[in-house]
UniProtKB/TrEMBL annotation:
Name of protein: INTEGRAL MEMBRANE PROTEIN (Rhomboid family)
Keywords of this entry: Membrane, Transmembrane, Transmembrane helix
Cell compartment(s), UniProt: Membrane
GO CC terms in record: membrane
Pfam families assigned: RDD (PF06271)
Entry's transmembrane regions: 31-54, 60-81
Domain RDD residues, every copy: 22-146
Claim: Membrane is one of the keywords in the record: yes
Origin species: Cardiobacterium hominis
Chief location of this protein within or outside the cell: membrane
Record's bilayer topology term: Multi-pass membrane protein
Domain of life: Bacteria
Alphabetized InterPro entries for the sequence: RDD (IPR010432)
Amino acid sequence: MLLDDALHVANPEGVQLAAVLADPLSRAQALLLDMLIIAVSLYVLAVLLSLLSAGLASQGIFTALAFVLVWGYFFLFEWLWRGVTPGKRALNLQVISADLMPLSAAQAAWRNVLRYLDWLPGFFGVGALALVLSPKNQRLGDWMAGTVVIFRRAPQMAVRPLQPGEVSPPPWRLSRQEQRGLMDFAAYADAHHEARLVELSAPLAVKMPDCDARERVQRLRAWGRYLRGMDGAT
């Protein structure tokens, strides 16, 4: 997950909203899981129909029910589960409107009607190319419905506010470059005004959705002080 994949949108009230776009690989993995669930469901349906009836009637019923299942699976889950299917849930993904508002029933219907256009032999390459080249990682159905797929926010544990000068370890693994950046931020913060620190920390707002600007700066400083102490002890 890169900060370059962040999508920023200002709502009509002027409030800046942010989300992290799902990459094509994560979306493909979620789709694979959903298709596996559909395949198993179709197999069970075929077995049940073969036991209950025989001949052309059962084949016609199976074809009709299979169409309803395949199309209804994505539409109903995305509509009723607020943009989440079982596959997306497993990959921590969610479909939302491109303005970062909740997905509407009409958008869920549109993107899933057009999903099958993406799968047609003549359009499959076009659909895949559109997803890869789109700046918002949108397939054709997303473009038409005005939707994007994002990483869902992980549940956040309640955290107490940090006190000035407090030291705290970072909550996620950091590369050496990221550690150095936090240590430099902590050193820089001691000699600069909070407004400048808020500006410098703004790109990390996506990774810290539950913190306001002041709390974000406070935590970055605490993590930097912690890393400076660890660096001095090694």
